[in-house]
Automatic annotation (TrEMBL):
Coiled coil, from the record: none
A Pfam family this chain is assigned to: MCRA
Organism: Haloarcula sebkhae
GO biological process: fatty acid metabolic process
Full protein name: Oleate hydratase
GO molecular function: FAD binding; oleate hydratase activity
SUPFAM superfamilies xrefs: FAD/NAD(P)-binding domain
Gene3D superfamilies recorded: FAD/NAD(P)-binding domain
Organism placement in taxonomy: Archaea, Methanobacteriati, Methanobacteriota, Stenosarchaea group, Halobacteria
Superkingdom per UniProt: Archaea
PANTHER family: 67 KDA MYOSIN-CROSS-REACTIVE ANTIGEN FAMILY PROTEIN (AFU_ORTHOLOGUE AFUA_5G09970) (PTHR37417)
Amino acid sequence: MTIQQHPHVTDREAHFVGGGIASLAGAAFLVRDGNMPGENIHVYEKLDVVGGAMDGAGDPDEAYLIRGGRMFNYPAYECTWDLFETIPSLEDDSRSVKDVMDEFNEAHPSYAKTRLMREGERIDAGEYGLTRQHRQSIVRLLLTPEPRLGDTRIEEWFDESFLETNFWYVWATIFAFQPWHSVAEVRRYMYRFLQEFPRLHTMEGIDRTKYNQYDSMILPLRRWLEDRGVSFEYGHEVTDMDIVPSRTGRTVEQLYCETDSGTETVPVEPSDLVFVTNGSMTDGSSIGGMDEAPELNETGASWELWKSIAEDNPQFGNPSVFADNVTETKWESFTVTLHNTELFDHIVDFTNEEPGNGLVTYLGSNWLLSTVVAAQPHFANQPDDVKVFWGYALFPDREGNYVEKPMSECTGREILQELCYHLQCEERLPEILDDVTCIPVMMPFITAHFQPREPGDRPDVVPDGSHNLAFLGQYAEQPRDVVFTVEYSVRSAMTAVYEMLDLDQEVPPVSKHYREPGVIADTVRAAYR
């Protein structure tokens, strides 16, 4: 048998399609662990900024914007900490990004006192309200092998009463699960985060970054890569690639990029490496304004590329399972910038939650509104006299309780009016909204990774027979790990790099806290609260 020989890593090129955290992590692992020169690495991004879903932009004059906020868990994010323990922070290059996070979370520990509210009253979210039948359904789910679950939906596995429990409201609004999502993904989450089951309502196990994740994680990682010569090709949308089959497998030989100057081709040698982020949770996002509702897009560049290359390569997965039903995969978020801090102060007083404590969900809301008031400042360039908070809703197509139309049709001003109704301060409109800006964002694919799916719908990180192509991100299959996390993207990048370079290093295994007797005992006790 002939063994394929590759040139030395210094003579190979690497091409990353998409500039999200998976690609940035992959580039870092190539440099740090694979000893590939940075100048051999190219990242193609259609926008003029990298970071993907880990975003954060704006200033106090034009208002701030984050599409979402990533939460972290120190017992579970093995690959993420492996990476960011070695990336210097921007504030002090003698300390790592993780060092800064550790310090911040020690000073600002999460402890939600008011996780759920209804009609202005705090609900004891620690009383999960699970019945014997609910507990039996959870145990049966944990004992059922994932392949046997297939594309079963949550609402098909649990009865309707389960979806009205405090446990479900806490679970659904932390992780963004909907009743029609995959019960197999719920099973993975329960195993991955069983150690958090007893304290989901307080969010004590959740850790955060000092600022938004773009300022705290993406910027220092990008600087580290740039300092090592990695090239970032902004305004480059990869629309297709030549994938040539042979008796031994498939090889990428060329990329096609759309730029402002037209179509560019990028030749790829057989020994070069191509890493593709197939699908994106924030692809197709539409930004509204204080007096403008966002639009709903039904496609995006990452999805079109994935569909194009999967058409003739079934082992590349089935993107339509995730991308073809935006009604089930969309929701809407909003970022509020306040020069007049009256509303900010009212939220803190009304919820009895200090900034940085947690997530408040308003159960009386038809939209199922939630707000997050982060520790201030939330942006590195945010002045002391400007405040910022973020919110989202899982049911944007329902009519509001106060504003008589769906959230998806609302301007930023109308979203704030609806929020003020649930905060019981609507009588102070419009003065409470004076000098306040709310920017809504519609994200058509934000929970696409939770769609019911069958084995094979997500491709392996390195598909069988692939000579130089690997997949990264939320839609590359990684047994036992959970999507909608930074960890999933970083783990996919580490897996891809180590396998493609055949490195004699192991990817940190997914922790098995669910096997610890203390974790099991605490979980059982919590299930009876």
